[in-house]
Amino acid sequence: MTSRADNDDWVLHRLEDLEKALEQVRADLERTWEGSVLVEAVINESDYPMVLVNGSGSSGGIDLAGPRHQLVAEVADYVQSQLMDQYVTRFWPACREHDRGLHSAVRDDVAVWWCRGGEHVVSGIGGLDPTLIV
Ligand SMILES: [Zn+2]
Prior knowledge:
Strand content: 15-25%
Strand order of the largest sheet: 3-4-5-6
Number of strands: 6
Helix content: 25-40%
Bound molecules: zinc ion
Structural class: alpha+beta
Radius of gyration: 15 Å
Oligomer: single chain
């Protein structure tokens, strides 16, 4: 049986994990996104941790209990999809060499930005190099 206190503890720990994953995505946004965007981890009305992008979002999809690199990749994917919904004419981030949008992926237990155009890793999530993207 799970007590209310155990559940609260679980929620707070997942929120902490989510916030750490978000830090990496935020680092990429700060260096490479033109303009400001607010990304934050919150606990929603169903008492479940979720990510908001400019104050909106949905809690679905992210596996909060998975390995850390997987969580980072999923959070990056989620933030990217929210940005595309909100800024329909922009694709962030995109490979400069192949002019193709990048997608989050896990390679050798590291969360990375992956270019499907050239089948290559552009950089780790959180270490996006502004000179390699458009
Ligand atoms: Zn590429």
